[in-house]
Amino acid sequence: MKRPIDTLICVNKANKDLAEAYAKILNITFCETELGDELSNKAFAKSLSNITSKDCIMLMDEAGLHLQMLHPSVFKIQVNFLSSQMEYRRIKGGGRNQLIAKAVGLKSNVSPVVLDGTAGLGKDAFVLASLGCHVYMAERNPWVRLLLEDGLRRASIIAENNPDLKSILERLKLLGSDAIELFKSQHMESVGIIYLDPMFPHPEKRALVKKDMQMLQFLVGEDEDAEDLLNSALSTKVERIVVKRPRTDQAIASKQVSYVLEGKRNRYDIYLQSGESRI
Ligand SMILES: C[S@@+](CC[C@H](N)C(=O)[O-])C[C@H]1O[C@@H](n2cnc3c(N)ncnc32)[C@H](O)[C@@H]1O
Q: For the segment 187-219, what is each residue's pLDDT rounded down to a tens digit?
């Protein structure tokens, strides 16, 4: 695996121990520094040029762990389940009428167990858990995975005083690293749906892509083994496998898709195995 990041920089004393532990997990250099309040994005990126020559660092500040892009543009992302976008989607996103809910076949009063084999930044998994599903997550990219872990850690602190969030987080578990390994584990006994959203094969132009997807493209690239992943999912006994794809792209597997749900930009290919009925 390529190593696009070699340094974790901590600019917040309160989070120093955690930042050091994270740097150890990733086996990258830990560095503590102070940030001038007045520092512009560009000046910040320049001030790090004697610490790393990479285009990206991990940054720990008072708001937790971020991926900080330094070149060609300066921006940072983190997993934030409480961001205004996530809140808006949770409250006004259409609930069980939204396409992802239909794709996994949610019915009233049933809370299926979903295995999200491509958790990424955890957005889809969080939406599914908000809709009542129990969601197991797998994420194999170590940088993305740590970001997700930190997002879950921060959310669980806030959840101590937020019962709604607490119950969502209780349904959301980051388990393994590689999904294919997870397909062989005892967790599969309870899984009713496998959800897959591998990186899209033809990345869109940077200007058109949201910052978090730009970052995933930088860190993960294309998931060239997506077909193996789907074939492994299809070889399990799980009855419903859902794959998110760009709307106009071909299906991944040679196996016939049972049916398709199309949205504006994406679509869901649904594979039903052994008698599951279409909803
Ligand atoms: C497009 S992103 C998923 C985005 C996610 N649905 C979200 O809402 O944030 C795809 C992710 O799947 C991960 N991935 C691909 N194949 C995997 C596998 N076999 N096991 C675990 N993770 C995998 C990649 O590392 C990448 O982070």
A: 999 999 999 999 977 666 555 578 888 888 888
